[in-house]
Amino acid sequence: MSHAPQSSEQDQVVLMDDIPHPDRDTSAPFVLANERLVAIVYRIAEADFERFGPFSDDDPFCVIAFMSAAFHQFGPPRDADLPAYFLTSKGLRGYSAHEVMRSSLVEDSWGPEYSLEGGLRHFVLTFGDSTFECVAGDCTVAGIYGNGDIAAREAFSLCQ
């Protein structure tokens, strides 16, 4: 299933302030998934260290969990191509986490009843070389860890 860019007026992009911003230089995100949960791991932007810390000598990574996941993908656009992406005019920003309210992806793929009553939500995280999209029941910070190895182990344990 791919979500072709379109010019839908219904999509409304909202910045999620409770999800850490990815680091611009070394975010190197990766995903672990099973049939019910998707976890994405990435390095936190230094600007968020104080908000999600304190961190001293740590290299903090977060695990973001998407519960009751129905769809996920990594792909275009990369950060340099965001200006041409149809969601950018709706508020999508680089190196950030977003929720797409009244999502055309959810309505076109599962029907309007799933975006209103069915509990499927559309999330978009933007990184340097890719964009991550996930349709799921919910999204939360599952944990923030002092380094990538610990975060990877914790993400793996969530998906077992």
From TrEMBL:
This is Uncharacterized protein. It comes from Paraburkholderia sartisoli.
